[in-house]
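look at this record:
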Amino acid sequence: MISFEPSSGTCEKSLVAAQVLAALILSAAPLAAQAPPRAVPVEPDQALQPNAAEDFYQRGKNLYDAAQARPDQQSRAAALQRAADIFSQYLSTFPDDSNAELAWFYLGSCYYQTGMVEDAKRCFHTVLNRYGTGVAVGAAAYTLAADHYHKGEYAFAAPLFEKYAENPSKPEDRPRGNTYAGRCYRLLGRDSDALTSFRKVIDDPAGGLFAPEAKVAVAQILLKKNKADDALKMFEAIINSPTYLAKTRGEAALGASQAATLLKKPDLADKYLQLIMSTPGMEDFVADAQVTLMRNRFEEKKFKEVVQLFSRSSQAAEGEKEAARLMIAAKSYMELKNPTRALELFRQIETIVPPESNLAFEASYYRIYCFFQIEGHHVPEQVDAFLEIYQDSRPNDRKVQTALLIKAESLYDSGQAEEAAKVYPKIKAEYLLPENQAGLYYQRGWCLAEAGDQEGAIRSLTDFIEKYPKDSRVRSAVAKRAMAHVALGQSAKAIIDFDQITAAGIKDEYASMAWLESARLRRSENNINDMVLRYKGLLGNVDNLSDKLLAEANYWIGWGLFKQDAKDKSEGRKESVAYLEKARKLDFATYRAHAGILLAFCHYVLQQPDALADEINLAVDGKYESDIPDQVIQWAAMQAFNAHQYASAARFLKLVSNSDEPRETPKEVWRYLAKAELEIEDGKTALEAANNVLNVEEDPAWKADALVDKARALYLLNQPVDARKVADEADQMRPQGRTKEQLLLLSGDLFVKAGDFTQAASNFLTLVSFHEDSDLRPLALFKLAATQDKLGDAAAAQKYRDQLKEQYPDWKAP
């Protein structure tokens, strides 16, 4: 941090905008131009002066400081905008005040942090042009320099970094600014100016943090200027500085080896290269050191040592550097009579460097040499140099045409189908040996198909099939031609080819492909019947299919059977169930939802409530239940309810209900949800459902029924007073049937809870006496016997228990 006093005598607590802005600007700086750190100019505390200008300025400063402390961007931006307004007004009112310099800087900082970059720069330039010197000038210069540096505008950035160094807020700002100025000059190729900047860093007492970089840069520039002696001395001084980072010392060691080489000191050069190879932290320079050592050993004809050095590091370099490393190693392998290994390396070189480079040309030449050493002739990927020499002068020569064929097949075999497709049409089949002509037609057909020239592929494959009908590759050629027809939309011709393959009855990969691709073709055409037949053909005629293909076939057969417009759709859907279930079992991840939805439809159509319930539960677990229609889920819910599977019924009914918009849900859903929740004793949900019924129900009978359910829910929630009020309201509507029975039973329970066992017994007795067909009657008998016990009439209690056992021997008490 730095301190200074404004000209008015007032003091500032902090000046932090420069470091914030520089960090924002330089965070995205290119790697080649490493970003400078943030600058932090500050001021010491001093009491405010009692004058209007000072107060006006301080208002803006306080707002600015408060904005920096705010954690969220939105509120910080708002505070900065307010501060900017105050600073702007202040400068308009008091343009010559002693705090104007700072105000211009803070105004620029506000603008920059709120995205008004050009306005910010205008303010910073005002500080530079109007005031010339001072820490605010340094901070403004640094911010503008960082902006130019980020954009690669080094010619503009350099003098601004120098301005920053000339106006430091703390001593280390000087070397920092000069370091970045030096970097800019080096990137501009202005080595003399860079030397001046870096030497300022070295001579600066506060330059300790930046001195290592500056010393390395100076030594490198000296070496570039052919001052190897001076450069070597500087490099060695850096290498021998134990406080310097290993990376810095490694860069110096590389420079020292180069200087020693220029000075004809090979042992010294090797010493520093070996230092890099063996010192942790110098990994960035290992590739350069390794290449240099290998080159030195090669020139000394120590080829085994070259190979040993090559094998020492598995860390490959990049681009030209890696190609150079491979080239030296490959030549050494050649000298050591190992052309196979050399050939591998030459091939690698050609994939690294562009073909027009000297390294690529040299690699091609040696590749041909190694090729002849290994086989003598016909290695396809090695023929380019041969064609370059002879193709124009001997266009119809068989060897030239064969070389073209070799090149095309080499490119194709390496996966470069488009490049190979450019070569194949240049080949004149009549000049090839007869045994090579069949291969030309066959390979050209496959290559053109994969390169996108389907018509050309069909022509070439047809030539092959017609000219060489007994060739063992005919089935694969027919298969490839079929796929070319598919790509062109010629489905009829494709089906003919597919059927030609399957008609032979051979169980091979081409039969598998023909059944599968023809089924997929029919699927894309929505020819469901034929699609199903072909997928069944795949299952019935091909062995050892993968689980993925088995799953695909089973799914689409199931889907097709589901979709087929048969007279009895239930039969098709019944048959589809087994296929869909198998598809899901074989490939659960792919067909879990797709098969599950279709299976839900099938079980719905087939009226299979238990199986449908299982599918809905799987859908809920898999989070695709929204894809199953509400009517299917509602039907499953009602079947579960009627089967006394109340938990499932409640779960399903919730899926088709909308508690946020109750009126969008059918009232029967709310009605049966309330009843299901009552059966599983979830009073809270039952109460919500009953209230939703009451909000939309107008029929008196159903309304009374909903009131009874609401009262029952309140009873479960231990709210007997409210339950009694709602029950009485229901009773006033004179309900009939089961609603009346439920009301009598509930009323009796409420009397029991209130301790009025006589009235409770009366309610239970009414239900027992006048509702003989009700499934609630055994429960009423059970409760009636219990109330008689409470009334002390043991004989009556036993009478009703005997009646319960006699009339309902299988009934179990709750």
User: Anything to note?
Assistant: Residues 73-93 form the longest helix (21 residues). The radius of gyration is 45 Å.
